[in-house]
Write the C-alpha cells for this entry.
Amino acid sequence: MSRSLAEMATEVLITADGREKTRLSRAHAVTWLAARAEGRPLPVGRAAPPQRPARPEQPELLSPRDVPKRKPGSPAGRIALLHAVAHIELNAVDLHWDIIARVIDTDFPPGFYDDWVRAADDESKHFNLMCDCLEAEGSFYGALPAHAGMWRAAEDTAGDILGRLAVVPMVLEARGLDVTPGMIEIFRKAGAARAVEALEVIYSEEVAHVAYGSKWFHFLCGRHNLDPKDVFHELVTKYFKGPLKPPFNEEKRAEAGLPPDFYWPLTAEGAA
C-alpha cells in the first residue's frame, strides 16, 4: 500500500542527517509528482509531525547574537557564508515538508501540495549544492556554529496557515531575493566559480517559492473574503520580530507576486 504524502513528509522531518534528509526529500518529491503526472495521485493522508525536526549533532546551534561574525571577503568569511546558506536551505527543506504535514485540516486543491513538494525538492538540491561547495573548500556542514532561531517562525505559526505563508515564504524567503545578489558578487570577486554557479541556481529558483507563498496566501484570503494586504500586515506584525529592512529587490519581489505596498509599510520608515 502506498504511503501518504503526510507520512512521507514526517519521515523527512524525523531524519537527522542533512544528506539523508535531502535524499529522502528528493525521492519523495519524485514519487508524489510522478503519481500526479500519471493520473494516480497518492493520498495526502494524516500524520503527526514533530514539534521540531530532527537535526544532526553538528552544527552547534547558538543564539543569533553568539554566532561568530567573519569578514565575508576573506576565505574564512566565504566558508562561513556558504555554511550559513546551507543551514538556511536545510531549514527550508523542513519548513516546506512541515507545512504539508500540518495543513491536513485545511481543504486545499492538489496544486498546493505540488508547489510545496517542488519547493522542498529545490531546497534539498540547494542544500547539497552548498555542501558540495563547502567540501570543495575543505570544510563541511556542521564545521561551524549556526543560528538557533530559524525554526521559531515554524513554531509560532504551527496552528496558523495564513501566518505561516505570510512569514516564511513572503518575508523570510523574500529576504533571500534581496541579499543573494550581494553574496554572488562576493564570490565572483573571489573567483569562486563553483559557489557563484550554485548561488545563481538558488537565486533563480527562490522566486518561485516566494510566489507559491503569495499565491496560496491570496487564495485563502479570497476564500474567506479577507483583504490580503491588511491581513499580511497584521500577521507579519504579530509573528515577525522587528521591522522589515530595506533595500528590497523590488523587481524580483514583483515577479513573485509581492507589490511594494505589502512590505514598505512594515519598515521602520513606513511605520513612522
